[in-house]
UniProtKB/TrEMBL annotation:
Transmembrane segments: none annotated. Residues 436-590 form the Peptidase M4 C-terminal domain. It comes from Streptomyces triculaminicus. InterPro entries: Peptidase_M4, Peptidase_M4/M1_CTD_sf, Peptidase_M4_C_domain, Peptidase_M4_domain, TAT_signal, Zinc_Metalloprotease_M4. This is M4 family metallopeptidase. CDD domains: M4_TLP. GO terms for molecular function: metal ion binding; metalloendopeptidase activity.
Length: 930
């Protein structure tokens, strides 16, 4: 059940790659451009794609501006225009927050472009204040000086919300490719958050839309931050807003309103006790309720000075995870006991560990760093413990922007609050959000996870007296298991030795938000090495100072390195220890230009696509793909070239401000979608040249475009709640012809075309005798109108089809397993059915989609694994048409997606290994990658 849901999400993710660095040539999540070496005293580090320096260090410059710290900071920037190149700091930098520690002041400023916030545009000014006078000691961050974007939207908020929801549905998989329907259809709503400038190139004016709800097919809550181009209506960026401990479930965030706790004066605090999972009796700070006289897990002892600042642990057993993300579930109460000693029931519920651990984490930040709660201003800390997943165990934990939520655990894993490092990790996400606010996608998201892992593990090792020299000191989550050894149980290991050159994985934002867990231990491993090589308390101070005073939302690994080194200098760390800091980053490959060391075994056809949510096409010896400019800020255009390489590449689409995406070609014609502020148009153009023709248009776009000769086929849906319908269009047709039988709840999808035959999957709703759906595979001969059923209707779902001149291939899912799918083949008349790849057995594939030629079928397979390792990412496997031969197409590390058969055994695909999105191919399959 869980495997199938995970597979559905992966199916959408594999359809369109957004490489972990593809968006970041001007600094977006997953920074991939080189930065200068770490600065020396008084040195200025240039910014990437901006005239404003990324970091200024080692200065002491007086500030004459009077007033607030923010006024002084902006006055400094204005007075040094030759250095900072910020024309009008008073107009274009809005104060976000000022934090003080002793004589130090750190001012964070939000960049504005013509009055509109710039995503991730944040600049930091560090000062010292003494005797009423201020001295600037350094600056850092991203201020984008190349922005020229118009600020008038051509796309309405209504259209932007609709397209944001559609984009989220597509990335979730939409019920295994059929979309919509009243069963399994995601229930999502979008909220317009206003205009924002996405800092790519000259800037992209975008509607920021937050999409929330429940993915009923995937069984998870949803929160997506989606940015829709306000000129053309195309979603240029989306990522999940939830911060999980383990591998990400499609999840959520948002404002949750907890009931107000009683003031301390009304409910005096008392000391109680409980036993943690490991058998230790611990002290608990409680409150006795005036009415029930129960002792509640409500700690007011640590949060003095404001009646609202309490630490509460809530009983969320029986609540589904979807009820707890971004909302406050109805009817829950703080854990309570008749006496101050909490019994074994509360141990097994995870409540004792959660309440005790939250206090330990709060104490750590207060005592070690002088920080008052997660936001630095005494915010309430709420922990919800014991949530489930459709009544089944939920083995994960997350921070949703306002509170911590811990899963119930299962037969092997205890409630997730049983790990002090897990609690520290999730609470640190709250600290990160209220300081550097590292965007939870790509490299910045991996750094967000890395910092959460570092502090969570630091708190645990100190609490348990673990030696930093222990090989197990870097294990996270190792105390969660009931029977497994710590190393078998651990979710991650900060001592895993991963490096950028050997371990970095370029993946789509649909996969782990661009690698936030996959790549995190590269950075956290460097931080952990620092803690092993210098005094642990000093290491914590260095990392905390880098996070709170140097880092900004779109920092990548190299900026993170520079921030930590600069923080060490500012703390006057001895040279020996500063060398250890630099050595740790070098050992993990976090050095200038590290991105250039990524090797591949494929041939590049079109490099650095810098695109999002678009597929590629191939046929007749040609490929077709969408591409932006080097900055990623230009609306996408369709290009075409020869699969064999050589010859000039051709610009197929107009460069008219619309987004030209999802092209298909048969070697003679290219067809594609053009997203504009109104409708989405289906366009075509001959490869030999000629005018662009409009074939069709609709509001919501097309799915799975294919072309053969003069026939174009796709699937579309009139609205989000209705399933997809396959359509085809021939020359002279005024309107497209629908394929398959259709009623309100039926759907057709997953189409392919060859030899004038359209293969597709049919979903049919039945009210009697048993309510539910059946799935079949059918072939329509467009010349005769005859339909042949090649897979009889059944209750088990089917997947992508691929029709050739000889056979029909499709994915089959007949066993409720861990997401494996078989590959089935039949003759065009429905006879000769055989499985060329079995659904079960050692060689079974976790198949996501397929593409076929007469000689071979190429399957994209991605294992639904909670750890997200390289071997579980989307990879291409090729099977001979008779199933006697199988092997990998490429051994490239990272995600391989959007494969299109180019004839024979050759395919083209989008590859994320380099950290960019590249269109690549191989002359022959790689075979065994072991």
């Amino acid at each position: 059940m869980r495997g199938n849901r995970a597979r559905s999400r992966r199916q959408a993710g594999a359809a369109a790659l957004v490489g972990a660095a593809a968006l970041v040539v001007t600094g977006l999540p997953g920074q991939a451009l080189a930065a200068s070496p770490a600065p020396g005293p008084g040195e200025v580090v240039p910014g990437t794609g901006t005239a404003t320096p990324a970091l200024v260090d080692g200065i002491r410059e007086g500030v004459t501006a009077a007033g607030s710290a923010a006024d002084a900071a902006r006055g400094h920037l204005a007075g040094k225009r030759d250095r900072y190149r910020i024309a009008d700091p008073g107009r274009d930098l809005k104060p976000l927050r000022t934090t003080s520690a002793g004589s130090s002041e750190t001012v964070r400023l939000q960049q504005k472009h013509r009055g509109i916030d710039v995503l991730g545009g944040q600049y930091v000014v560090r000062m010292e204040k003494k005797d009423g006078k201020r001295v600037v000691t350094g600056t850092s961050g991203k201020y984008f000086t190349a922005l020229k974007a118009d600020t008038k939207a051509d796309v309405s908020e209504e259209t932007a919300v609709e397209r944001a929801v559609d984009a989220t549905l597509a990335q979730l998989g939409r019920d295994d490719g059929f979309g919509g329907g009243d069963e399994g259809s995601p229930s999502l709503t979008g909220t317009a958050r206003g205009l924002v400038i996405v800092p790519k190139g000259a800037g992209v004016l975008a509607h920021h839309v937050t999409v929330r709800g429940t993915d009923r097919a995937g069984g998870q809550p949803v929160l997506r931050e989606v940015y829709v181009d306000a000129k053309a209506g195309y979603p240029v960026l989306q990522y999940s807003g939830i911060r999980t401990f383990g591998a990400p479930a499609a999840a959520s965030g948002g404002a949750a309103q907890a009931p107000r706790a009683k003031a301390a004066a009304d409910a005096p605090g008392v000391r109680g006790s409980g036993v943690t999972y490991d058998g230790t009796t611990v002290e608990l700070q409680l409150t006795q309720d005036d009415g029930s006289k129960e002792y509640l897990m409500r700690d007011q002892s640590r949060m003095r000075g404001s009646s609202k600042n309490v630490l509460s642990t809530w009983d969320a057993r029986g609540k589904d995870v979807s009820e707890t993300s971004g909302r406050w579930p109805e009817g829950i109460k703080e854990f309570g006991s008749k006496g101050p000693q909490f019994s074994q029931e509360f141990t097994e519920a995870g409540a004792v560990d959660a309440h005790w651990a939250a206090g330990k984490v709060y104490d750590y930040y207060k005592q070690a760093h002088g920080r008052d709660s997660l936001d630095g201003r005494g915010m309430t800390i709420n922990s919800l413990v014991g949530v489930t997943y459709f009544g089944m165990p939920y083995v994960n934990a997350f921070w949703d922007g306002t509170k911590m939520v811990y899963g119930s655990g299962d037969k092997e894993y205890r409630t997730l609050s049983a790990g002090l490092d897990v609690v520290g990790h999730e609470m640190t996400h709250g600290v990160v959000e209220n300081t550097a606010n590292l965007v939870y996608a790509g490299q910045s998201g991996a750094m967000n996870e890395a910092v959460a892992d570092y502090f969570g593990n630091a708190i645990k090792t100190d609490a348990y007296g673990t030696s930093m020299d222990s090989p197990d000191s870097g294990l996270l989550g190792e105390r969660l298991c009931r029977t497994k050894t710590p190393r078998e149980c651990a979710i991650r290991d900060l001592n895993d030795g991963r490096t950028t050159s050997k371990s970095f994985l370029g993946v789509s934002f649909a996969t782990d938000n661009g690698g936030v867990h996959l790549n995190s231990t590269i950075f956290s491993g460097a931080l952990w090495d620092i803690r092993k090589d210098v005094d642990r308390a000093l290491a914590d101070r260095i990392v905390y100072k880098a996070l709170t005073e140097y880092m900004t939302p779109l920092d990548g690994f190299t900026e993170g390195r520079n921030a930590v080194i600069a923080a060490a200098k500012a703390l006057k760390v001895p040279a020996k220890d500063r060398n250890a800091v630099t050595r740790a980053f070098n050992a993990h490959g976090i050095v200038p230009n590290w991105e250039q060391a990524m090797g591949v075994d494929s041939d590049q056809l079109l490099g650095r696509l810098n695109t999002s949510n678009t597929t590629v096409g191939a046929g007749g010896g040609w490929w077709a793909a969408s591409k932006s400019d080097d900055s990623g800020g230009e609306a996408y255009s369709v290009w075409a070239g020869k699969v064999a390489g050589g010859g000039a590449q051709k610009l197929i689409s107009p460069n008219d401000g619309r987004y030209h995406v999802n092209p298909a070609t048969d070697g003679k014609t290219v067809v594609w979608e053009a997203y504009g502020p109104g409708n989405v148009e289906l366009l075509s153009r001959p490869l030999a040249g000629g005018p662009v023709k409009k074939l069709w248009s609709n509001r919501r776009g097309m799915r799975g475009l294919k072309v053969e000769g003069k026939v174009v086929v796709w699937a579309e849906s009139p609205r989000a709640s209705v399933g997809l319908q396959v359509m085809y269009l021939r020359p002279g047709d005024a309107e497209p012809t629908p394929v398959g039988h259709r009623s309100t709840r039926d759907a057709t999808s997953l189409q392919s075309i060859s030899g004038g035959r359209i293969a597709y999957a049919q979903r049919t709703y039945h009210a009697r005798p048993t309510r539910g759906y059946t799935y079949s595979v059918e072939v329509l001969d467009t010349a005769t109108g005859k339909t042949t059923v090649v897979q009889a209707p059944g209750r088990h779902s089917v997947g992508q089809t691929g029709v050739t001149g000889k056979h029909v291939f499709w994915l089959v899912d007949e066993v409720d397993d861990q997401g494996q799918r078989g590959v089935r083949r039949a003759n065009l008349d429905g006879t000769g059915t055989v499985d060329v790849s079995k659904e079960q057995g050692a060689d079974a594939l976790h198949a996501v989609t397929l593409t076929a030629s007469d000689e071979a079928v190429t399957v994209t397979a991605a294992t639904p694994d909670t750890q997200y390792r390289n071997e579980t990412l989307s990879k291409l496997w090729q099977l001979s048409a008779d199933g006697t031969r199988s092997g990998r197409v490429s051994c490239n590390r990272g995600e391989q997606a959007a494969a299109a058969a180019a004839g024979g055994r050759q395919v083209v695909w989008i590859d994320g290994t380099t950290g960019y999105t590249d269109l690549v191919t191989r002359g022959r399959p790689a075979g065994n990658c072991g």
